[in-house]
Amino acid sequence: MKMRVVLVSVIMLISTQLLLCTEVQDKLNPAWVSYPGSPGPGQGKHIVLMSGDEEYRSEETMPQLGKILSRHHGFRCTVLFAINPETGEINPNEQKNIPGLEALQTADLMVIFTRFRDLPDVQMKHIHDYLQSGKPVVGLRTATHAFQLNQSKTYAQYDWRSKEHPGGFGRNVLGETWISHHGQHGQQSTRGLHAPGQANHPILRGIHDGAVWGPTDVYGVRLPMLPDCTPLLLGQVLQGMHQDDPPLAGPKNQPMMPIAWIKTQDSNPRHPKRVFTTTMGASQDFQNEGLRRLLVNACYWCLEMEAQIDGKAKVEIVGSFKPSSFSFGGFRKGVYPKDHDLK
């Protein structure tokens, strides 16, 4: 009897020590990064930015966007990453784990840049509940094919291969799913031109025609787009990988594909009321001031703060930002969320 009591006590002591070690480890290497809002129009609003793609370095774009929104505009931001559960390192190839999604419970806006994530139900539920709340969404690049759910079909409606909900999250929430590389990947860059009649849209405030450019290629979309989608920028396929390269001649630019659009609806309270999507957003794209302004303006618009969009507001890089080239397997190893803290 005494031996059993001693054994139970030892087990409890070991369990307590392991729990304390885990808590200490979580504090040393938290699985996400948070930026408090500075004084600015966004004070009191919480934005959750979700990264997780294997190619376009969303794990670099999203913390920098969060820093800009926090430091220059006053939004409180939480940035989430694909995390190796054994080491706590950021690993975009880890498709089954984005910890911290419970932050969506207090979010006013979700910004998503993921690709083919196969998240467990306990994580997908936070995304589903957020979308059901009717709150707004901003989607970047591969968010058009954000989920590929193999381990559970509970939330199969968001799988880009869905038969019952064709196009999944991309088509039904953002307005389009993955179709194709329209420009030649890695060889033809993208210039953003105002869509006809949209030059005065609040999201384009302070962004002149052609100001948005990035080395990523134009994605294909179905034309015309869904009736509730309005293109804001069209993607001019360029002959090369420089901002001043001439446009490609021929059918690739006749017509041009939308690279930024909005999707709005008022009829269904359990569906995002305002959505903005761009098929740009790689960390190399984010060096372009026009794209940074586009994304900041889009966040304001999605939060119904368009009256406060200032076309001259600061969108400068915060701290150091040296983006990696987009490529599979090209992410920086040994990086933890805490490495993206505001310095």
For the termini, the CA-CA separation is 57 Å
Radius of gyration: 21 Å
| Main sheet summary | 10 strands, mixed
Beta-strand segment tally = 12
**Which stretches of 5+ consecutive residues score pLDDT under 50?**
13-26
Q: How much helix is in the residues?
A: 10-25%
By helix and strand content, what is the structural category? alpha/beta
Shape: globular
Total helical segments: 5
Q: SSE order, as H and E?
A: HEEHEEHEHEEEEEEEH
Characterise this structure:
- It is a single chain.
- The chain is α/β, with parallel strands linked by helices and 343 residues long.
- The protein has five helices and twelve strands.
- The chain has helices spanning 2-28, 58-71, 121-132, 168-174, 289-302, and strands at residues 32-35, 46-52, 76-80, 109-114, 137-140, 180-181, 190-194, 212-214, 219-220, 229-237, 257-264, 274-278.
Task: Present the secondary structure layout.
Blueprint: H1 2-28, E1 32-35, E2 46-52, H2 58-71, E3 76-80, E4 109-114, H3 121-132, E5 137-140, H4 168-174, E6 180-181, E7 190-194, E8 212-214, E9 219-220, E10 229-237, E11 257-264, E12 274-278, H5 289-302
